[in-house]
Amino acid sequence: MRKFIKEWGPFTLLITAIVLLRLFIFIPVQVDGHSMDPTLAEGDRLIMVKTAKIQRFDIVVADETEDGQTKQVVKRVIGMPGDTIAYNNDVLTVNGEEVDEAYLDAYKEKFTQDKLQSTYSYSPLFQELAAQATAFTTDADGQANFTVQVPEGQYYLLGDDRIVSKDSREVGTFAESAIAGEVKFRFWPLSSIGFIS
Question: pLDDT of 113-127, one tens digit each?
Fold first, then answer.
């Protein structure tokens, strides 16, 4: 028995540690849809960390429930509990302070150029949504100027592709218990492998 433990003990511990990490801390997830373009693409495979502390602008995986069905979505944290979030023609203010969303710059520029018509050439529906939009970020009613008070214990989540993303603007805020974890690493496709900042 001692010989077995000596020979197989470290290997068994390693396998156990890997299984436990996989079950309870590092969870693989896949991006479904275009709501996080161009930051994350449909089909990207990611590693989510369950124990991460949530901060503004983190990309998280959350449980979204609609019509009794629950699915996991990948979105960005814009509003923290108790925040007052406002958009005024694509300018974000948080608690009265203007905040830059540099990760939106590429698509906001394309929206200014041709309302994303060439970017959305793969989807007539997306082209129609963009053509009707008055700004890159609007509320569920299409208003370019809107304010949201985030309740305590809730988070306001938006996709990076604001034209096509279904997020807190439509489904409401997300409870802390609905956030499964933070996206930390992309492992597929290999051409885009790396940490998510």
Answer: 999 999 999 999 999
Q: Which pLDDT score, from 0 to 100, does residue 83 have?
A: 98
Q: How far apart are CA 130 and CA 142, in angstroms?
A: 11
Is 166 tagged catalytic? no
Name the least confident of 21-30, 81-90, 149-158.
21-30
Q: Residues near 22 by Cβ (< 8 Å), separated by ≥ 6?
A: none
Rounded mean pLDDT of 72-88? 97
Q: Is the model's pLDDT at 38 over the cut of 90?
A: yes
- Please confirm, yes or no, whether 121 is among the known catalytic residues: no
Closest by CA to 183, choosing from 160, 149, 150, is: 160
Global confidence as pTM: 0.85
The domain defined by 29-195 folds into Umud Fragment, subunit A (2.10.109)
Catalytic entry in 6, 50, 53, 75: 75
Domains of the chain, by residue range, sit at 29-195
Closest by Cα among 39, 41, 22 to 31? 41
Catalytic residue among 35, 115, 165, 168: 35
